[in-house]
User: Fold these one by one.
Assistant:
Number 1:
Amino acid sequence: MAVPWYPRSWAPLAAALTLLLVTGCAGGDVPAPRVERSSAAPAPPPDATPGTPTPLTSPDGTDGGTGVEQDIDAAVSVTTTYWQTHWPELFTGGYNPPRILGTYDGGTPGTPVCGSEPLPDDNAVYCPDGDYIAWDMDLMRWGHARGDAWVYLVIAHEWGHAVQNRLDAGLVDLARELQADCLAGAVLFGAAQDGTLTFEEGDTEELADALTALADRTPWTDISDHGDASQRVGYFSRGARSGVKSCLPDVVQ
Ligand SMILES: [Zn+2]
């Protein structure tokens, strides 16, 4: 995935996303990693969110693909730009981006806390107490080895929780995790339409793979559930096809 997935057609996405399986905001058993195609990601825009980790400047193309740090920076940039641009068209009131706490190393003494709890090992979070997004680099490296679309999905999903925290309660779906998937689909495919993100060959399959790898083994029944693979893919696809408003409860559409 590169900054500026052109969706060549909706058919491959629908096909890829219709098949799906996944855990919390991360983790889970996974199939063998796939080989990445190389891609060149432009530098993030200068107005990146305050607190964004400094982009690394490792050269492109020497390792068969972009580095995980570069893809994380690009995903943050693409996601914040999408919400900054489209919020006024969607919601009343101004938009303030969440803070980007960035990388943490879960399971160690220095792990940051959300409230009184250390951030979870090998996971990614939006912490309402502090209004920040953070990710364990082990999760990102593990997922990135399967495909670079992983980091875009994780960041856009967590950002979806930050958006939920900014909405009136009536706009937040009881299935919060699935709504976050829907919002992630709306952002990533909306960004492609805006020209700020380019889909490369294999990216839609990688997204389906990531949603599957991160899904619960059982269908959604409780507010804390993430939903099974077909549900996660279904919600993501809805957002991808029909945008942010399609992720909101029916009453407001
Ligand atoms: Zn989540």
Number 2:
Amino acid sequence: MPSEVLRLSGVSKRYRMGENTVTALADANFVINEGDFVAILGPSGSGKSTLMHLLGFLDSPTEGEILFEGKPVSVLTETGRARVRAAKIGFVFQAFNLLPRLTVRANVRLPLSYNPEPPADADERVERALASVGMTDRAHHRPGQLSGGQRQRVAIARALVNEPRILLADEPTGNLDSHTAASILNLFKELNAQGRTIILVTHSPEIASHFKRRLHVLDGRIEERFA
Ligand SMILES: Nc1ncnc2c1ncn2[C@@H]1O[C@H](COP(=O)(O)OP(=O)(O)O)[C@@H](O)[C@H]1O
Ligand SMILES: [Mg+2]
């Protein structure tokens, strides 16, 4: 039995907009197990980012329950949620979100410096993360000196430096040309082959076709399709 990382049961997210209610996600039910490689697909506005925010407990559901490693997220305090998130979840975004004044190495180290007690092996972790995305020889560069694909590699290294239980990537290839997108997809594939659990949002059916599991989101409703 693979070990369970995330479980959604009856999860909905509604936003009140004056008189109206927007249902961004409706009755989501699925399990993410260790080692899963999942694509979330759907048109713009279908609820993909809403789902990713819930999976990383950056936001709370209106209805239903999210379990992380078998425990309900809703019972944690804000601080408790932030602690679990920092230790166990790595985020990658479309816009890379690197700090331009810091070197590549310092950007990758950043999540460790938020830790009140940085790990004793912080230096090794940073070098390991840089090596895992093939950016060791650019460690002293600044983001502005890198291509889009290289910046996304650095952002992935930053997400990996805490050795998270799960990697959540929201349209990580959305700002990249198709050739560069393919190389970033290959990097995610390698990370998954090493055992990393990955959930990736894309609106490219080509990219999604490489995933073992595909969750299609349409108007907030999720339908699962297997490879
Ligand atoms: N903070 C918010 N307040 C109100 N409506 C929102 C908010 N965030 C998202 N929505 C709405 O929820 C729906 C899903 O949005 P989103 O999850 O961002 O879609 P996607 O990432 O698939 O493009 C959209 O109709 C969007 O307008
Ligand atoms: Mg989105």
